[in-house]
Amino acid sequence: MLLIHCPYCDETLPEAEFAYAGEAHIARPADPMATSDEEWRDYLFIRTNARGPHYERWRHVHGCGRFFNALRDTVSDRFLMTYKAGVPRPDLPATEDAQ
Amino acid sequence: MQVTVEELAPVARFSLRVRDKGVAAVGKALGLTLPGRIGERADRGDLAVLCLGPDEWLLTAPEEARAGIVADLAGIYARAPHSLTDISHREVGFRISGPAAATLLSMGCPRDLDRLAPGRGVRTLFDSASVILWRDGPDMFRMDVWRSFAPHVRSLLEIGQQELAAGL
C-alpha cells in the first residue's frame, strides 16, 4: 500500500484514507461568458495525461477531509512531494530522491 | 489474547467548525483551549474536544450537558461565527479494551496504531467505514461509527475476537 504524506495532518498515512481527485492547477476561466466553446471544452475535459511527474489533487477523505496537491511520478507511482491547496505550483524536485 | 468489545451508552456529540479569530473565543466559551494540531484532544471534566481537521473539532459530552453547550456557543455566535451541529444520533460508540485491542483493530484499520499515542484520536477507516478512533489508554480504544455501519463493524469485531480466542 502506498503511504501518502498529508500536509495538513503532517503525517504519512496509508493510501486507503485518501481519494484521488484529478489533475491539479486547472484554473476556471475568469469570464465564462467570454470563453469560446473550444476553450471551455479544454477546461472541462482536456488533461495532460503525463508520463512521469504529474501534479494532481488528492483528498484526505477518511481523515482531515482536506484537498491537497501532490506531485506523483505516474511511472514509478512514487510521491515526490505533497503540498497544501492554494500554494503555487512548485518546481520539480532537483533529484528523484527528493521526497 | 484478551480483548473485550462493548457498546457505549449514548453521549452528546457535536461537530464544530470555526476558523481564525473565532477559535479562541469558542474555546473560552467551552472553558478550554481548542487543540490546534490534528489528532490532539483537550478535556474539561466530561467534555472532550478532539481536533479532526484544520478547522474542525468533535465535541463529546454527557447527554445532560447538551443544552448547556448549545446555549454557551449560541451566546458568542455574533462575535465568533461558527457552525455547531448536533451529530449525537449519527454515531454509535464502541469501546475496545484489553491487551489485544490494538491487534483486533489492526484487522480493519490501515493506520499504524503504535504511532497513535494514548490521549490522541483520529478519523480513519475501519474496513470500508469512516470511523473516529480515540486511544484512551495503551490498551483502551473507543471507536465512533456511523449508525448504519455499526452492525457491519460490530460483526467484523466479533469475528476478530473469535479468531484471537482461537489463537489464529
UniProtKB/TrEMBL annotation, chain A:
The alphabetized list of GO BP terms reads:
tetrahydrofolate metabolic process
Any one GO MF annotation of this record: sarcosine oxidase activity
* InterPro entries assigned: SoxD, SoxD_sf
Name the domain of life.
Bacteria
- What positions belong to coiled-coil segments? none
Please name the Pfam families in this protein's record. Answer: SoxD
Q: Can you name this protein?
A: Sarcosine oxidase subunit delta family protein
Q: Which organism is it from?
A: Rhodovulum strictum
Q: What is the lineage of its organism?
A: Bacteria, Pseudomonadati, Pseudomonadota, Alphaproteobacteria, Rhodobacterales
UniProtKB/TrEMBL annotation, chain B:
Q: Which Pfam families match?
A: SoxG
UniProt cross-references to InterPro entries, sorted A to Z: SoxG (IPR007375), TrmE/GcvT-like (IPR027266)
Q: Which domain of life is it from?
A: Bacteria
Name of this protein: Sarcosine oxidase subunit gamma
What species does this protein belong to?
Rhodovulum strictum
